[in-house]
Structure formats: C-alpha cells, structure tokens
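Residues determine shape. Next comes a sample protein:
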Amino acid sequence: VQLQASGGGLVQAGDSLRLSCAASGRTFRSRVMGWFRQAAGKEREFVAAISGSGGLTNHADSMKGRFIISRDNAKNTVDLQMSSLKPEDTAVYYCAAGKISGSVRLTSKEYEYWGQGTQVTVSS
C-alpha cells in the first residue's frame, strides 16, 4: 500500500482545512486508516481513525467536534476535515494504513504503511 497525503498549508486560527490521502493497492477498503500528527520536538500523536467500511470512527478527545475523518473506498481516499484550527494544531500530518480488518483503536505501532506527511501551519 502506498499513501500520498496532500492538502496541508498555512492558514489562520479559526480557519478550516481538508487533508486528503490517496492510497494505492487492492486491500485499501479492508484496512483501517488513520491520521496522526507530529509537531516539532514532540512525539507523534493520534488524530483519528476509520474502519475499512467507514462505519466506525475514532477521534482523539482533544479534536472531537473539530476534526472529522472520512473515506471513499471507490476513490481509495481518506480525508481529514479540520475546522476551528488553532496554532497548537501546527504539525506534520500523516496518513497511515493499519491492519486488514483492524480496529479503529490501533496504536501507531500497529499501522503498517505510512504516507510522507503534509505540513499544516496555523498562525495566530
């Protein structure tokens, strides 16, 4: 599985941004997909995950209500809609593909494939 994240950029606090991750491979729709982020000098942080069917999602508590993960299995994409962005949301955002039929509560170490990351910068 190859993953290509896009959609990052420089925005102002309060703005919205939509990240997209394009995936290759026939197993995409069977895999849990996740978004993670890593701010400079900090550890990688879970953002959200979605089951293969899209029927189950899991969002980090600090982002619930602001970030929404979704997927389109016909297009092999998984998106992260971010709203009410804050300067502390500044980070490199990564999409990742987890195990086939994996849980939306996988740890980052259980994700098998990672994209290259897209930078999101939120100015105050």
Summary: The chain is about 0% helix and 50% strand. The mean pLDDT is 95. The radius of gyration is 13 Å.
